[in-house]
User: What shape does this take?
Amino acid sequence: CGSCHGLESMAESSTKPCIVLPGLYGLLVQLLLFACCIGTLIAKKVVEGGERTWFQFGLDSSKQLIGAGWIHILNLLCAELLGSQMGQGDECEWYWLNIILDTTLGVLIEYLLLRVLTDALNTVLEEGAQDFRTGSYWRGGEFQVIMYAKQLGLWLVIVTFMKLFMVILMILLAKPLTIAAGVCLKPFMDPLLKLLVVMIATPIIMNAFQLWVTDNFIKKREYADQGDNFSRGSVTSLLVGDGTRASQSSQSSPLDAVSGSNSEMAAAPAEIQGSK
Assistant: This one.
């Protein structure tokens, strides 16, 4: 009968495992996620004001977006491989775990790797390490493509190593992680609804957090010891950005305006005022 056939279809739908990227639906999901990433970064630029030009912002953001695209491909591959090889959880649960770990613990690892590798390059290359200083793309007042390319390459190395650490962690803690994912996703039994939560809701929220925080340390920052090391910012600065520094800069602008072309004379009272 028709009703029996409908019940059978519902039963098959509820028992069918959740898989990522189911055809056209998956493609539309990817486009939506990309649009949300762009929107998040633009919102951050609007909030921070004129600290960076739109061109500078675009260069910083493009490194993040290219890295995020690379990580997204790795996440899909990891979800399929871990879902089929580990014998625990389905593809959606593994993809959800990839997103949660990458956007929380993974961001911290990226930050630490950027600091460690930047300090190491400063030690090994000395003056040559200037090309790798994140957010610095100009030399002698001219934009240098090679500086951007080097920083992009360094960032892709960082996100790849971060993903490697996350995969090792997921393999070592496969059982407790899949149990946690199963508990969190248990209310969403229907495969389509589960896919909606795993591929849209979770990435939109968590990627927005990741992009916002990562932008705070991937953009150009002040350097200590005449450029040899990253300035050691607080956790608050990492999360909310350099609002304090921006406000200090805006407060010092009247001195710069009065000084006219003699910027060196204006710098001295600004330093004295800052030390007080």
